[in-house]
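Q: Joint fold for the lines below.
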Amino acid sequence: MLNLRRARRRPARRTPWIVSIYRTDTGKKYAMAISGVFLLLFVLGHMIGNLHVFEGAHGGTFRIDEYGEALRDLGEPLFPRTLVLWAFLRVPLMAAFLIHIHAAVALTRSNRAARETKYQSPRDYLAAGYASRTMRWSGVIVLLFLAWHLADLTIGVEAVNPEFVRGSVYHNLVSSLSRWPVWILYVAAQVALAFHIWHGAWSLFQSLGINNPRFNRFRRTFAHAFATVVVAGFLAVPAGVALGVVS
Amino acid sequence: MHLTLRVWRQDGPGVEGRFETYEAAGIHEDMSFLEMLDLVNERLVTGGRDPIAFDHDCREGICGSCGMMIDGRAHGPQGRTATCQLHMREFSDGDTIVIEPWRATSFPIVRDLVVDRGTFDRIIEAGGYISAPTGSAPEANLTPVPKETSDAAMDAAACIGCGACVAACPNGAAQLFTAAKVAHLNLLPQGQPERWMRVERMVETMEEYFGSCTNHGECEPACPKEISLDNIALMNRDYLLSKMRNRRLGGQR
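A: Joint structure:
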């Protein structure tokens, strides 16, 4: 006997499209690549902003201090102070970081499960480079560095940077980078970031299915150039402090 | 040539295995790698010991049966060849050669160097075919295929399913195999009716068994048929499109 009540009932709600894609490994690779693009744009913007350090002072205030203020004032006077910074930069960035990390952890688990018994003799890799094989480690180093960096120069945790003064970007970074263990930490983290981008900025093209014989040969060049430019720019600041250009 | 072999010996699925060392004297440089193993096996059998089990069939690089890790490389030191077409001239007198089976959870070891690659068949069953009504052959010029397209499809179709891509991949991923099978049919007109069903099902079946692609690119040089990584990008793109298209067709299949 046909159950009409049951037949008339609407079908069960389907999983949202985006969630069902993210549940697959290939979908996680897409999430990884898209959040990666966002994070790459962020590091590029951050690096360019850092170059204000070399402009020194202007009318009594350091240019980088003015730049920091300008970031908080974004959208003024249309929007309340720091609203644009939070809503369009900080929150999406945090989301990108969380997605990037969640996808990385989930994919690593799936990859480990795919080879429960490792090779019992040494492997001879032909294509997998140092950068691509250490992505999880360079990622973890960058993440740990990020925690330090936020405590050091954004929030100003007493134990991390005792000389922190809110808003005095120039003073804060000089006092922080004048301590040699911190200086080494910053430089080491940038090297890890360089390795991460070296592979990641190429890998994202494959994950997103961006493949065209006309520009395929530029994909790796792009990644290597991006990594070099960004990290050279970042390293300019600790180098400037060490050389006394920034003090 | 006089060689020392360190070979993985395992009596059956799921039991503890170990490396065993064999001396291989009087190896001719014109022998293939499998002929060298045949000779070693003959001597083992004569000495009353169990021969080394390994997969082989056509011995001309087109069946995809043979395959083993030789000195940490899938199919050994010579690129673009399966183990059967690797010759002993690639080695020198006095070398120690380490031979290990493919390692992947979805390629369980049957015995010694033999693994069960049945999971590749699961992927093919999920969509690596076209459904065509039988009958007389259609007129050949009815469906024109551009030369570049047929070349690309043919290059993908060269995959022999040996499993070297999975074996070489640090993640134990089967993207290169699946992508070759997807691209081979998805590029051609005959593959279009089932294109989106094919890529969705094949990718999802692959993910049940294998790891994910982190673009190391290790599979490409390991492949005896030179399948290109470009196929993986094509598969990724088609997979995302399939998720959208198949959703629009929702409930109709």
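Q: Anything notable?
A: Residues 30 and 208 of chain A are 6 Å apart (CA to CA). Residues 26-104+130-243 of chain A form one domain.
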